[in-house]
Specification:
alpha/beta, 27% strand, 340 residues, Rossmann fold
Length: 340
């Protein structure tokens, strides 16, 4: 008897500023696999815009920490790492209790996929699908805060108020800080940040004027622009820390390491979510961090920041909007409900 096949629509980055949606048939899950039907996937604005624009180092791997993203940045390739769906079928040796479960996975944009169960995150009933889409960004924000280790009474700034910056500011707002300022070029993002309790928001020009007299103690550089790092150095105080969470891709800039940087003994910290800082690994595992992330998602409910929802068939339009109107398209989501 012929094994059943399942249709899959998937997104392919084919060239700078070009994406294509392709349909193919997936085989039935093998004995150990499950089949997941996707209901939502989220665009990671920072990383995926670099990919869409072709501003990535081609020699680098897509992401060695995510098994669903093999290979390197060479067109054509699939990308994406935030999907929510429902397990529709399970292989003969898989636990059949997976069938019907809502799950999250670090998977490229596609309407369905095959996976081993140990690569899925089973979702609790009290978290919505669209809040769950922010899981990778929330995990990144938690990692930034852990690496920054803010202290009571510190003066803190977040440069770059995209989704990751806004989530980071949300987490920091719960600390007993003396000052918490958000900084961004885009007025719309500053407006969202200003709505958070205890957060002031400024343009880069106004940030220089409103900078604390002795500078900030801790700065998170999350703008995705090398100029953001120069701004952080200019705003920093003596022996302050700058946590660099931006991935600049192939973007280059002249970083001013004279003057303030040299004399102020500023510490630059590279922070990346794929690993946990060595001084925390004795107590913190990725599972413990994940539990913290899900708890924060159910508290913050970031789905309120979704600005646009598109069918996957309109992917080209979605990326064009993100690229051309970043202040208008804050978080863009692909919806797969009833696509067929």
């Amino acid at each position: 008897m012929t094994e059943p096949e399942f249709p899959q629509d998937f997104l392919l980055f084919t060239a700078p500023e070009k994406v294509q949606v392709i349909t193919r048939l997936l085989p039935a899950p093998n004995a150990e696999e499950v089949l997941v039907h996707v209901t939502r996937s989220a665009i990671s604005t920072g990383t995926e815009l670099l990919i869409y624009r072709g501003q990535f180092p081609p020699e680098e791997s897509l992401d060695q920490s995510i098994k669903s993203l093999p290979g390197s940045f060479t067109y054509p390739f699939q990308y994406g790492y935030s999907t929510v769906g429902v397990v529709a079928a399970a292989g003969s040796e898989s636990d059949q209790e997976w069938v019907g479960r809502r799950v999250f996975a670090f998977q490229p944009h596609a309407s369905a996929y095959l996976s081993l169960p140990n690569q899925l995150i089973s979702l609790p009933a009290d978290i919505s699908a669209e809040d769950t889409l922010f899981l990778p960004n929330m995990e990144t924000a938690v990692n930034f805060v852990q690496d920054g280790a803010p202290l009571i009474g510190e003066r803190v700034a977040v440069i770059g108020l995209g989704i990751v910056g806004l989530l980071t500011a949300n987490l920091l707002a719960r600390f007993p800080l003396s000052t918490l300022d958000g900084i961004d070029l885009l007025p719309g993002r500053c407006s969202i940040a200003a709505g958070l309790p205890g957060v002031n928001s400024f343009s880069p020009e106004k940030a220089a004027i409103n900078r604390p007299d002795e500078g900030y103690d801790l700065i998170f550089e999350l703008s995705g622009s090398p100029e953001g790092l120069n701004l952080a150095i200019n705003l920093a105080g003596f022996e302050s820390r700058i946590v660099i969470g931006s991935w600049y891709g192939t973007k280059k800039g002249e970083i001013n390491l004279g003057g303030k940087f040299h004399r102020n003994r500023i510490k630059l910290v590279s922070s990346q979510v794929s690993t946990i800082a060595s001084h925390l690994q004795g107590r913190w595992s990725k599972q413990r961090r994940l539990e913290t992330v899900i708890d924060q998602l159910t508290t913050i409910n970031p789905s309120k920041w979704i600005s646009h929802r598109f069918r996957l068939s309109r992917a080209q339009e979605a990326y064009e909007l993100l690229s051309a109107k970043p202040d208008e398209a804050f978080q863009v989501v692909f919806s797969y409900d009833n696509d067929r």
